[in-house]
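A.,

Following up on our hallway conversation. Structure tokens first:
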């Protein structure tokens, strides 16, 4: 009798458990052109890709939508709360075993940006000691920069890249460490000519991924990866949905003054 009751409980609640596993709190940050808000809607290259692979995998997002949070909060939550996911997350050596990964979504270039007219030359890491340097708190660019030996106390850490772009323009910092594509995109949006700036030091060219909490069911991860791989396959016209989404956004980086 007890055995039958146990079986009844298992078969009654197993479908509910499975459904719960398929509902994931998906988080992102303001990081155009990959993920950002526009007129109250979260859009961007990575956003469209992630929405598509969730739909194709028959997986639902918790509360039915992507949540936009500051990077530090989202990064904290995905480390400590099961059933969470975060994009666009750089897959670095330090993070490799912290999460499960789906991707890559995109490639980015992480470097140190300065005004051209300052003619700043960086030959060694020690040269950074002479400058005021802005970073985004807990982001991959900051983590990579600290790994070179730069001290955390020497950085002007902010929660949003726009804050440091404004400070760089105003001369309140000398250098900004971040991904080059996003900085150029944001400069155009803010009416700043990105051609007045240059990369004075390159850190890395990481790939961006959808990161999921380390306890996420592997079957769900595999379904998402399979959906991503499929959308990268060319259609009859020789292009893929993946490529078309990228082209939809990246043109703006070269459109300043046109």
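Then the amino acids I'd put at each of the 258 positions:
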């Amino acid at each position: 009798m007890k055995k039958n009751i146990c079986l009844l409980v298992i078969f009654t609640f197993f479908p509910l458990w499975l459904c719960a596993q398929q509902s994931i709190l998906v988080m992102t940050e303001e990081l155009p052109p990959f993920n950002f808000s526009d007129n109250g809607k979260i859009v961007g290259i990575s956003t469209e890709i992630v929405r598509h692979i969730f739909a194709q995998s028959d997986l639902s997002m918790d509360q039915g939508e992507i949540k936009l949070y500051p990077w530090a909060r989202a990064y904290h939550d995905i480390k400590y709360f099961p059933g969470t996911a975060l994009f666009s997350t750089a897959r670095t050596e330090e993070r490799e075993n912290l999460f499960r990964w789906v991707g890559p979504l995109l490639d980015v270039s992480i470097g140190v940006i300065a005004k051209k007219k300052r003619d700043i030359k960086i030959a060694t890491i020690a040269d950074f000691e002479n400058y005021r340097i802005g970073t985004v708190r807990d982001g991959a660019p900051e983590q990579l920069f600290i790994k070179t030996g730069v001290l955390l106390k020497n950085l002007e850490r902010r929660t949003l890249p726009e804050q440091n772009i404004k400070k760089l323009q105003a001369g309140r910092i000398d250098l900004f460490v971040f991904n080059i594509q996003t900085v150029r995109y944001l400069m155009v949006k803010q009416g700043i000519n990105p051609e007045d700036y240059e990369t004075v030091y390159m850190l890395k060219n990481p790939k961006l991924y959808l990161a999921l909490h380390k306890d996420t069911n592997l079957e769900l991860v595999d379904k998402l990866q399979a959906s991503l791989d499929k959308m990268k396959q060319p259609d009859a016209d020789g292009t893929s949905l993946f490529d078309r989404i990228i082209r939809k956004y990246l043109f703006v980086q070269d459109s300043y003054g046109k």
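Residues 5-21, 252-258 have pLDDT under 50 and may be disordered. Curious whether your intuition agrees with the design.

B.
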